[in-house]
Write a structure and sequence with these properties.
The protein is α/β, with parallel strands linked by helices. The strands form four sheets. Strands 3-2-1-4-15 form a five-stranded parallel sheet, sandwiched between helices. A hairpin with a 5-residue loop joins strand 11 and strand 12. It is globular and about 80 Å long. The mean pLDDT is 95. The chain binds flavin-adenine dinucleotide and iron/sulfur cluster (2 copies). The site of one iron/sulfur cluster has 14 residues, from helix 3, helix 4 and helix 7.
Length: 484
């Protein structure tokens, strides 16, 4: 190992790929970061100190072998770096783009802790796999054995569903993926905007899965088009990976006025426009921020994506109201900085009280000033109202981005025997990841609650293993029965 090529963090400063200036990027949906050139990627990878106990890897939900692929990159052995990186992840180039690295791998890098600035792990990861796609190193998906006598049904083509699909197909099963949308990718396609993750990056992954024999059934909604039991009867095992989609609402006078809209409707419309689709609710202006005073309510990733989408659509002004302060918001600090550069105004410690309704249309938000009190049950400081701190913000488009809860799946799927937790997420066995219904497994946000793409990938990887164990046992039992 060429240790001498590593450990350069003392003399070599941390350098992320250059960001396009705000004035250049604020009217398009292309990713904001330029990519490294090869020499930069090698140089930045060489800052790694090759820790004996790599905390970066410990805090990566996929336990990616980060120190080794950084070393291979620094040594110019990019194809080997790619092969190592893809051995633990189905989409490293996606994680490299949208993981909150400041809270995961990079936030726990020892040289970040020692004040030198973390190794730019996510940017190197993205560079490695983008290069692999360019160079043709990404191999087609091929089944390694033939288990086509058994079929698997997967409900939901988000990162959890397609990751499980890839691993199960690789083992040789016949794999069918059902999704209610007309395209796969889940929130990678219809939630997360192009300026964080260009659509082509997701589409080429899906195309590879289709070419590998995975069958996608789009515009197919389980519950509407078929009950869970009927789908179960068609397959030897099922996976539910449907994510969480019940938007939390605001209870305040005027919330029903036209122009007060749910975040996901807004983001889906914008993402569809990026694909060139016709979207009537965008074209008639209901889901378009152009020329409007926009107020987004919330402080998570969804709120950050909405404010930055509104900027790109040409809003007259964009404000974000959040009831806690900057240090206590759930969204990524990097995203707040990006939004501020693009002209978004954050109104911290403020909560909506009512929506002014002018002839049925929203005209403003009446808000209350908040302060942070003692920690609540979750350990976070609870916001409290500041008496006399009321104020008004002009608005002709208000976007509600307060997070998501699970839909009522037992009811929706016509499956009363499907057990849920008190939060409405699916209850699964910790070891097998099977739900209360035999042969029906679950993974991703529908089990965890709203989480992260990298955790959905991890769950997809884990559940593929447990489903294989289940299917192999069933195949073994059938073979014994036939031989008897
Ligand atoms: P999803 O991605 O939600 O996929 C579920 C799929 O199931 C969907 O395609 C849906 O159409 C389908 N489905 C649902 N019900 C049915 C049904 N009845 N029949 C058929 N199909 C059905 N995470 C990050 O790590 N980084 C980010 O920057 C980030 N940004 C985000 C921005 C937004 C706006 C949102 C909403 C989330 C963001 N997240 C981010 C979270 C991340 O997207 C999710 O944690 C992740 O996508 C969950 O994956 P999943 O496969 O469990 O579900
Ligand atoms: Fe970091 Fe995410 Fe990549 Fe893991 S998957 S190394 S957490 S960017
Ligand atoms: Fe390298 Fe940082 Fe990981 Fe240590 S923690 S192995 S320095 S990337």
């Amino acid at each position: 190992m060429a240790e001498k090529d590593m450990l350069k963090f003392v003399g070599l400063a941390q350098a992320f790929p250059e960001k396009r200036p705000a004035a250049e990027r604020d009217d398009d949906f292309l990713e904001i970061n330029r990519t490294y050139i090869l020499a930069k990627a090698e140089e930045q990878a060489s800052r790694c100190s090759q820790c004996g106990v790599p905390f970066c890897q410990v805090h990566c939900p996929l336990h990616n072998n980060i120190p080794d692929w950084l070393r291979l990159t620094a040594e110019g052995r990019l194809q080997e770096a790619y092969e190592l990186s893809e051995s633990t992840s189905t989409m490293p180039e996606v994680c490299g783009r949208i993981c909150p690295q400041d809270r995961l791998c990079e936030g726990n890098c020892v040289i970040e802790q020692s004040g030198h600035g973390a190794v730019t792990i996510g940017s190197v990861e993205k560079f490695i796999t983008d290069t692999a796609w360019k160079e043709g190193w990404v191999r087609p998906l091929r089944p390694l054995s033939d288990r086509s006598g058994q079929s698997v049904g997967i409900i939901g083509a988000g990162p959890a569903g397609v990751t499980a699909a890839e691993y199960l197909r690789r083992r040789g099963y016949e794999v069918h993926v059902y999704d209610r949308h007309d395209r796969g990718g889940g929130l990678l396609t219809y939630g997360i905007p192009g300026f964080k993750l260009e659509k082509e990056v997701v589409m080429r992954r899906l195309a590879r899965l289709e070419e590998g024999g995975i069958v996608f059934h789009y515009n197919f909604e389980v519950g509407r088009d078929m009950t869970l039991a009927a789908l179960r009867a068609k397959h030897d095992a099922l996976l539910i990976a449907t994510g969480v989609y019940k938007a939390r609402d605001i209870k305040a006078p005027g919330v029903g006025a036209s122009g007060v809209i749910p975040a996901l409707d807004y983001l889906i419309a914008s993402n569809r426009k990026s694909f060139g689709d016709s979207v009537p609710a965008f074209e008639d202006g209901s889901l378009n921020a152009e020329g409007k005073h926009v107020v987004v309510i919330g402080g998570g990733d969804t709120a950050m994506d909405c404010v930055r989408t509104a900027v790109r659509q040409g809003a007259a002004s964009v404000k974000c109201l959040y009831r806690r302060d900057r240090a206590n918001m759930p969204g990524s600090q990097r995203e707040v900085a990006n939004a501020e550069e693009e002209g978004v105004e954050f109104v911290w410690l403020s909560a909506p009280q009512a929506f002014d309704d002018k002839g049925g249309k929203v005209a403003g938000v009446r808000a209350q000033q908040m302060r942070l009190g003692a920690p609540d049950g979750s350990g976070r400081r609870a916001p409290e109202v500041v008496e006399g701190g009321d104020f008004r913000v002009e608005a002709d488009l208000v976007i509600k981005a307060l997070g998501f809860d699970p839909e009522d799946l037992p009811q929706l799927f016509g499956a009363p025997d499907l057990t849920v937790t008190r939060w409405g997420t699916l209850r699964t066995d910790h070891k097998t990841m099977m739900t209360s219904v035999d042969g029906v497994f679950a993974a991703g946000d529908i089990v965890r609650g709203a989480s992260l793409v990298v955790w959905a990938i991890r769950d997809g990887r884990d559940v593929a293993k447990t489903m294989h164990t289940y299917l192999a046992a069933r195949a073994g039992a059938s073979a014994k029965k036939a031989a008897a």
